[in-house]
Design brief:
Mean pLDDT: 88
Strand content: 5-15%
Shape: elongated
Distance between the termini: 89 Å
Oligomer: single chain
Helix content: 25-40%
Largest sheet: 6 strands, antiparallel
Length: 471
């Protein structure tokens, strides 16, 4: 039996069926092309979004840079005004609105400071200028002083002495020639604190301690080695190379050198007469051994060698009151030369620095810090040190008076400026050191610290996030 074949469509029906297969292929191709175009559009849109964000960050960074420059101009104006008012040598007391989240256009800046009266908490920043005279000067400090710093080692102490020794024959000198690459021991004065990183024994744990970003507080990202929830900084926190005072009066005249009063007793008598009158002047000169038949007088009433190691020792011997000494203290010196280098400002130094001057006597150092906190109006001269120590620590008072290491004046200040651009972006941080010892503010050092990372703590970041969410 033959099978009958289905008749094939003909005409328009057959034509429609023959065209259906090519149309389906074209549709698939069109869909793939559309998918590719959409993918390209999304890719370029995403790339443009990233580029827009990057551009926004660059603009914010430029705004932060301008905020820092604005802070520098403001501080320069502030110091210039202070000098013009006759207050050079005094640490500017910036109120919080002038150093915390200060607006400059859409950007803001902060002056990261230090609280040397009390250790601050693990995440609480202090804002203001940093007094360079509150630190130990690498070019002037003695080995039996610097050795008592926290984390300090004998090797690093010796390396500091060798690095600044112009003779160049210290025991650590050969170490530098064996390094890869090798370099020479400087055998000259330190120019920056960061030179310490080149020295023998200068490992990062000794230099920075727990303060990796060098902002003075223990941040959440930093390692608390001893788990005491407090910052234990390295030795760089306590070093400076800038502290110096002009060894002249405000009018440019020479100060009276108390290290050798025999040749300057007339100038001293004139200074005392101007401030205290004849009767009180005679009493003070007698106490100093410069009048009558008291100690220090040779035959015929002519003074023999009379001198004092420091203005503090002069004050102790003079029998003056603290108020009296404050009137003449800036007219006295115990050093020759144009400048007095390396004295520590007892009004602003931390307990760690003060303990170094006392042979690691932390009790006396804490006593000094506690006294100045309780008596902020009595800190007009080094005379308050006698009131603070009194009869309780006579040996410590004698130790401080035997060397010219204390002052209450400061002429160099660090401005550690951190800034944020609009919307909390574009973080920048730059450190400046201002020097006013020449009679006008001069920036003697500038260092970009942005690479150290965020240094404004958690509170500043949270405030920015809240402000952004409220917009």
């Amino acid at each position: 039996m033959k099978l009958r074949q289905r008749p094939q469509p003909c005409g328009p029906a057959r034509l429609r069926r023959s065209r259906s297969r090519p149309c389906g292929s074209v549709l698939v191709i069109v869909l793939w092309i559309a998918f590719g175009l959409v993918s390209l559009a999304l890719y370029f849109a995403n790339a443009m979004s990233f580029e827009l964000r990057a551009s926004d960050n660059r603009v914010s960074a430029q705004a932060a840079d301008q905020a820092i420059e604005g802070a520098v101009r403001y501080l320069n104006y502030l110091l210039t005004t202070q000098i013009a008012n006759g207050s050079n040598g005094v640490l500017p007391n910036l109120e919080d609105p002038l150093c915390h989240a200060v607006p400059v256009g859409d950007a803001h800046y902060w002056l990261i400071g230090r609280d040397t009266n009390n250790p601050v908490g693990p995440s609480r920043l202090c804002f203001g200028l940093v007094d360079e005279a509150s630190k130990l000067n690498l070019n002037a400090v003695a080995s039996n002083t610097v050795i008592w710093l926290p984390r300090m080692t004998v090797d690093l102490t010796q390396a500091i002495l060798d690095w600044r020794d112009t003779n160049g024959n210290g025991p650590t000198v050969t170490y530098y020639a064996m390094q890869q690459p090798s370099y020479q021991c400087k055998c000259d004065s330190f120019e920056t604190v960061d030179e310490v990183r080149l020295l023998y024994g200068a490992d990062m744990d000794t230099l920075l301690g727990e303060d990796a970003n060098r902002n003075g507080v223990l941040d959440a990202s930093e390692n608390d080695d001893n788990q005491d929830n407090m910052l234990d900084p390295g030795v760089l926190e306590y070093f400076t190379v800038y502290s110096r005072e002009p060894n002249t009066n405000s009018d440019g005249s020479a100060r009276i050198n108390v290290a050798n009063l025999s040749g300057s007793s007339a100038q001293l008598s004139s200074l005392l007469l101007t401030n205290f009158g004849t009767t009180r002047t005679d009493q003070i000169l007698a106490s100093l051994g410069l009048a009558g038949s008291g100690p220090g007088r040779s035959r015929g009433g002519v003074p023999s060698a009379v001198g004092f190691a420091s203005p503090l020792q002069f004050y102790v011997r003079s029998g003056m009151t603290a108020a009296e000494f404050a009137l003449i203290s800036t007219n006295l010196t115990a050093t020759e030369g144009s400048y007095v280098e390396g004295r520590v400002n007892v009004n602003t130094a931390s307990a760690a620095v003060l303990a170094c001057l006392l042979g690691e006597d932390t009790d006396v150092a804490e006593q000094l810090v506690n006294y100045r906190q309780s008596n902020p109006d009595n800190l007009t001269s080094v005379a308050w040190v006698v009131d603070a120590l009194g009869q309780t620590y006579p040996d410590a008072l004698q130790t401080l008076a035997a060397r010219d290491v204390l002052t209450t004046q400061s002429y160099q200040f660090t401005a550690d400026v951190a800034a944020l651009g609009p919307y909390g972006r574009g973080y920048r941080r730059v450190k400046f050191v201002f020097d006013t010892s020449s009679g006008s503010p001069t920036i003697v050092y500038r260092q970009d610290l942005t690479h150290l990372g965020w240094a404004l703590g958690q509170e500043v970041r949270q405030n920015w996030l809240l402000a952004k969410a409220a917009q």
